[in-house]
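Supplementary Text 2. Reproducibility record for the structural model of the 152-residue chain.

All settings were left at their defaults, and a single model was retained for analysis rather than an ensemble. We include the record here because the model underlies the residue-level annotations in Supplementary Table 4.
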Amino acid sequence: MQEILEVIDSYGIDTVVLALIINVLTGIVKIPIKHLSTKLEPKGIHLNKYITLLPIVLGFSVSALATGLVFEPGVYWNAHTPVLALTSAGLSLSIYAICEKFFGEKRVTDNTAKNGDMPVATETEQETSADKPAARIVLKKQTEVNKDESKT
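Retained model, structure tokens:
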């Protein structure tokens, strides 16, 4: 509770409220983008990479609306709006990262999958290429894992 009060004291209640609004709107807007991305992925169109820009775009939009509707009615853009937008978008990303750490989706990390065709993490492969992450999880179907285990 003390940390929340320190964040409000540091950033101001307006920035914290806008960050929470941006966080919720990002969650709502990214759902249809993910569904569309899965449909367009076989065609070579990858929309998921643009989801990271949503908090920034929504930050400017929500800050302009807040400026025009709450802080200075009728004036949607002033010198404070870009600062408010970037601060609230950055705080929104921080809140999202903290929430994802504590409440995020848990990934399967062992060979105890219930479905025979469900991919499970079986090993870590090191890569040194600049475009690929340092370590990535290699997925195998559960039936392949069972075949590998029966050979040993």
